Amino acid sequence: MLTPRIGIDGRPHRLVWVVRLTVERGRLEPGDVVSVTFGAGSGPEAGFRAALNPHGAERVLVAVDPAGRGSFQVLDSDASPSLQVVPSKPAEVVAVVPSLLEQGEAASLRVAILDAFANAVPDFEGSVRVRLHTGQADFARESQIRPADLGATRIPFRATKPGVVRFEVEVPGVGTAVSNPVLCGQRAPGLGLYWGDLHSHSDLSYDAIGNTPYEYARDRRSSGLLRELRAFRGLARGCMEAIRDRCHRFNRDGNSRPWSRTRPRSIRPGATTTYFRGDDGPLVSRETGTLLDLWSRLEGHEALTIPAPYGRSLAHHPGPAGSWGVSNPDWSYHDPRFQLIEVYSIHGQCESLMILHPLAYENCDYTWAESVRGPHYAVDAWTLGQRLAVIASSDDHASQPGRGEGGLARSGLHD
User: Fold this and answer.
1) Are 244 and 214 in contact (CB under 8 A)?
2) Residue 56 burial by Cβ neighbours in a 10 Å radius (0-12, 13-18, 19+)
3) Which of 254, 340, 350, 396 is most buried, with most CB under 10 Å away?
């Protein structure tokens, strides 16, 4: 729900899912059972993909209106059901190594076990068999994942000769995976090469869930970069402080190498995300200014502004009428501060108008959007002479950054 409203628990500014049962004839008697199945149906009626909660079961709020007068009473905790999201059986092996190393430099092959929904499987226990796919390196050919490892492990290795090294990892009963390549040189690389997700959400966004995005990026996707966005309407007090604290705690442990930190933007079609190379910078929402106002306030700051998504209509979105609309940028406008665009996210691709493409808005079952005919896509901007680099991100809303949709995965770049 784009427009904030108050949920049963009294909290505003978030996506509120409410199942309402109205008894129109007769009455419920003591002992009668009302069953609600989570996740049933498809399309706009489907349940949402829930993130694992590391803190255990969550209370399902239930409110009743016995007299039917619109006055609801929330049941006490001991009378309310609980819901716990648990992983399915192990189904995927993830194997990741650094992209650049010096010959003989100590490094780690990260191996993680996921279920079919990309969830961590923290209670997994089993052996890990490793062999060279290409190159030469010293490493342990067999390792173990124990319950204390929470479904992920690191296997030390050293490249013994310059060249490209890749590993093949087998986890019996789960599957195999080939790691990304690591280029090993005789000298240390002058610049680093990092993989990451520049557009992801957690429970700090009003329309997202999950509270461990950095841990998931590190342990399940081995991302070196993560930019956590906060989606909201207006400027939420304390929001950026919370993101900053999370980011700092994660970075202090040496888990990532951030270039920038994300600042929020008004969540609406055609919104612009702002990335800062530091902790401070101006906040501009659609209630307080335009993109031109934002650029004006960015003078003196190192920042990037990235619009996404665009070229789509959300007229058929199941939200309230008028809360969604059409995103049609005018690419004829040029400004040197406009340098990057996002060409893919969970919503679909906006590189060009390709309605039959499997990654078109029409074929991505997330926001039920439609492609808009016209010169509103990245190729149209390039045709007009705009010099724009691109990013492709998940825009994940379940604290699973780096998760590829529709078969997209990092391995697709190498194989």
Assistant:
1) no
2) exposed
3) 350
For domain 90-185, give the fold.
Answer: Immunoglobulin-like (2.60.40)
Quote the mean pLDDT of the chain.
Answer: 77
Distance CA 246, CA 240 (A): 10
User: What fold is seen in the domain 196-413?
Assistant: TIM Barrel (3.20.20)
| pLDDT score recorded for residue 287 | 63
DSSP string, 157-202: EEE-SSEEEEEEEEETTTEEEEPPPEEEESS--SS----EEEEEE-
Residues with Cβ < 8 Å from 10, sequence gap 6 or more?
none
Give bridge partners of residue 348 from the DSSP assignment.
345
Distance CA(402)–CA(348), nearest Å, equals: 15
Residue type, 349: Q
More confident of the two residues 81 and 128: 128
Mean pLDDT of 382-401: 86
- H or E element at residue 391: strand 389-392
CATH 2.60.40.10 domain position(s) in the chain: 90-185
- pTM of this prediction exceeds 0.85: no
Size of the chain, expressed as the number of residues it contains: 415
Locate 55 and state its tokens.
Answer: 């803190």
Express each pLDDT in 191-250 by its tens digit.
888 777 888 888 777 677 777 787 777 777 665 555 555 444 444 556 667 777 777 777
Cβ(77)–Cβ(54) under 8 Å? no
Going by C-beta distance under 8 Å and a sequence separation of 6 or more, which residues neighbour residue 174? 90, 91, 92, 93, 113, 126
Report the DSSP beta bridge partners of residue 340: 389
Domain with CATH 3.20.20 in the chain: 196-413
Q: What is the mean pLDDT of residues 340-356?
A: 88
